[in-house]
Amino acid sequence: MGTTRNVREKYVMARVMRQNIKHQEDFTLKKYGTWEKAEEAAREWEEKLKDKLPDKLSTKGVKTNRNSSGVVGVRLDKNIKCKKNGSIYEYLRWIAFWPNCPLKGGIGWSINKFGDDNAFVLAVISRNNESVDRKFIVDEFYKLQQTEEYSKVLNDKSISLQESDQRPSGIGFLEY
Predict the structure, then answer these.
(1) d(Cα 140, Cα 142) in Å, to the nearest integer?
(2) Longest CA span, the chain
(3) Structural domain total, the chain
(4) DSSP state of 164
(5) The whole model's pTM is what?
(6) SS3 track for 16-45
(7) Using one digit for the tens of pLDDT, what is the confidence trace for 25-54?
């Protein structure tokens, strides 16, 4: 819910968006006399309207145009480190994150260590369970690894590394 003063046109506009439907009403100074009275009328309109509106839609798990991995809450992280000797190292990892994640930047799974596909699946498992417990996540990975569900998770992946950037395709044994 929100109100906006339109000084140029001399009215207060009240807007509410629910389930992708915009509800709007204008409160003119001509009718209400002062900004304060127009804003008070707008607040009263909002209060009356609130009871009639449907519940807000949850945005949890909804993909937006900012999502590039194909899975909500999973992203590819590219980190470049320059060593003192001039060597440059590129570290790629899949990171899972969610609101109130106990790890500030989310939980990451190294592509160098696990391979691109396995690291992605580990990140998806982390996100789906909202867990940073690596042993639990690896155990869930083993349960999933030889199933059709593993392929379904990979089908959601919309980023593929270039052939030249491809890290080991997978590791048969994950250590943790």
Answers:
(1) 5
(2) 75
(3) 2
(4) G
(5) 0.59
(6) EEECCEEEEEEEEHHHHCCHHHHHHHHHHH
(7) 999 999 999 999 999 999 999 889 888 887
